[in-house]
Every structure is written in structure tokens, then in C-alpha cells.
Amino acid sequence: MILHNKLPQRLRFYYGWYIVAVAFLAAAVDVGFLGYIFGLFLKPMGGDLGWSRSEMSIGATVGTIGSGVLGLIVGPLVDKYGSRVIMVVGGG
Fold first, then answer.
1. Residue whose C-alpha is closest to residue 26's, from 78, 67, 58
2. For the packed helices 83-91 and 53-81, what is the interaxial angle rounded to 10 degrees?
3. From 23, 38, 47, 50, which residue has the greatest number of CB atoms within 10 Å?
4. Do residues 23 and 9 make contact, with C-beta atoms less than 8 angstroms apart?
5. DSSP summary character for residue 5
6. How far apart are CA 67 and CA 33, in angstroms?
7. Are 64 and 34 contacting, i.e. CB atoms less than 8 angstroms apart?
8. Backbone angles phi, psi at 7, to 5 degrees
9. What's the pLDDT tens digit per position in 24-83?
10. Closest to 17 (Cα-Cα) out of 7, 25, 6, 8
């Protein structure tokens, strides 16, 4: 009997590359928002919030630095407890 469902070992795609691709796309979207699109929303958001341009930029900077610091904390927790627990805690 011939199994058509199994691919030869050399044709399989390593699963880790899917994770790398998704992380790359997520980072590209984040950089695109803070780098290019954020400038389009700077005046309207600042007007609605009553913030100046410098206050809006400081807010974006604090958010970026906060994400970097939290990444150092959340990363080991995901390794220890798994991503499901962290997602439930973060979403709750």
C-alpha cells in the first residue's frame, strides 16, 4: 500500500520557520504603524486627546520601551508555564 499523505523527509518544511514568519510579520506591522502610519494619526489623535505632538511621541516611545521590558519578563514565563496560561492571564 502506498501512502500519499506522507512527504519525503527532504521536502518537509520545518515548523519553526512558520513561527519566524509570523513574528516577522507582526514586527513589520508594528514598525509600520509607529514609523509611517503614526504620523498620519498624530494630529487627529492629539486633537482628540488634547495632547501636543511631543506628548504623543513620548506616549509612543513609552509604549515601545514598555513592550521591550515586558518581553524580557513574559518570555521566561511563557517558557515556564506555556503560552495558554499567559494568554489567559493577559486577556483577563
1. 67
2. 140
3. 38
4. no
5. S
6. 15
7. yes
8. -90, 155
9. 888 887 776 666 778 888 889 999 999 999 999 898 889 889 989 998 998 898 899 888
10. 25
Alpha helices in the chain (DSSP H): 16-32, 38-49, 53-81, 83-91
Task: For the full predicted model, state whether its pTM sits above 0.85.
Answer: no
| C-alpha–C-alpha distance, residues 58 and 54, integer Å | 6
Question: 78 with 86: CB under 8 angstroms?
Answer: yes
Q: Alpha helix locations (H) across 33-52? A: 38-49
Amino acid of residue 49: L
Cell digits of residue 43: 494630529
